[in-house]
Amino acid sequence: MPAATLEPTAPGPVPPDRSVASLPERLAPPMPSSSWRGWVGPLAVGALAAVTRITNLGRPDAVVFDETYYAKDAWSYLRFGVEIDEVDNHKDLMLQAGDNWRTVEAFSGEPGFIVHPPVGKWTIAVGEYIFGVTPFGWRIAVAILGVLAVIITARIVRRLTRSDVLGTIAGLLLALEGIHIVMSRTALLDLTLGFWVLVGFGLLLIDRDRTRQRVAQDIRIRGVDQVANGLGPYLGLRPWRIAAIAALGLAIGTKWSGLYFLAAFMVMSLIWDALLQTRHWRGPPVVVGLRARSSACSTVHHRDRYWRLPPYLDRLVRHLYRLEPQLGC
C-alpha cells in the first residue's frame, strides 16, 4: 500500500504586529490620501445631493406638514425676535408674503406657544430673510444643511475606515436616501438637529485622532516607558473637543432631544481616552496599560509597575474574556 503523501498547507494569515515598536503606527494609522484627493469623492456625492435636494425646492407651492409652525415662527423671529401667535388665515398669508414679509400682517400680537428652542427656527429664518417668505425661502437653509451632511458623512466614514472609497460610498448612500432627501426639502427641525449631531461626532473623531497622533509622536521621541510613567500620557489641549461641545450645544438649541446625544458622546469620548491609555495587546484582548512586555503573564504579575485600570476592572475584563486559563497565569 503506497505511503500517504502530505499535501502542503497554505500559510495562515499573518498575525498583526503587537510589538511595542509598532505602537505609534497602531495609535495613529495614516489617512488613505492627503490634500485635495481626500475631497474628490465627498464633493462629488455632495454635488449629487445638491441636485436631489435643491432642484424644484419651491414645489409643492404649499405649507407642508409642520412647516405651518416652524416657517411661521421663523418669520415671526424676523419681524419681532420672538414667537408671536398667528392669525387664522396665516397659511394663505405666508404664501402671499414673498419679499413683502416685513409689511404683511400675519400675526395677532399675542405671545406664541413655544415648544422647541430657537436655533432650528433661526436657521429657517436665514433663508426667509434672503429669499423671502416663500416655499423656497423657508426650505433652502435646511436643504443646504442636508447637502453638507452628505459631504460630512463621507469624510467621517473615510476617517473611520481609512478608505476614500468607503467614505464616498457612505456619502453616496446618504445622498440617495429617501427620508434624508424628504427631510432636507422640508422646513422642519429634525434635519437641523441631525446636522449638528453629525458635526459634533465628526469633531470628536478629529479630536480622537489628533490626540492619538500627539501621543504617538511623544512615544517616538521619549519612548513608551517615559510616556507611561506617572499619570500616563499627556493628552494636551483639546480644541476639537470644545468645538464638538459647541456643535452639540447647537443641536440642543434646535431640539431638547440633543441632550441625549451630548450625554452619549461624552461617554464615548471618555471611553476613547481610556482606551488610549489602556491598550490591548498580544492575541486576545488583555488590558495591560500603555506599556507591553514580551509575556502577557509577566504583565499580570507586575501590575504594580504599570499605569493601568483599577484592579477590579482588570479582573473583570480578564474574567469576561476568560484569559487567565489561556495565558497560564
Q: How would you describe this structure in keywords?
A:
3 domains; 329 residues; 15 helices; mainly alpha; two-stranded antiparallel ribbon; single chain
Structure description:
With 329 residues, this protein is mostly helical. It has three domains: 20-188, no CATH class; 201-277, no CATH class; 278-329, no CATH class. Helix content is 60%, strand content 2%. It is built from 15 helices and two strands. It has helices spanning 23-27, 37-54, 67-80, 90-97, 119-131, 135-161, 164-175, 178-184, 190-222, 224-228, 239-252, 258-277, 296-301, 311-321, 323-327, and strands spanning 84-86, 107-111. Strands 1-2 form a two-stranded antiparallel sheet. The protein is elongated, with a radius of gyration of 27 Å. The chain starts with 22 loop residues before the first helix and ends with a helix. Mean pLDDT is 84; it is low at 280-307 and 321-329.
Task: Please tell me what the overall shape is.
Answer: elongated
Question: Helices and strands, in N-to-C order?
Answer: HHHEHEHHHHHHHHHHH
Radius of gyration: 27 Å
Largest sheet: 2 strands, antiparallel
Order of strands, main sheet, comes to 1-2
Strand content: under 5%
Instruction: Return the structural class.
Output: mainly alpha
Q: What is the helical fraction, as a range of percent?
A: 55-70%
Question: Span between N and C termini?
Answer: 48 Å
Number of helices: 15
**Could you tell me the number of beta strands?**
2
User: For the residues shown, what is the average pLDDT?
Assistant: 84
Poorly predicted residue ranges: 280-307, 321-329
Number of domains: 3
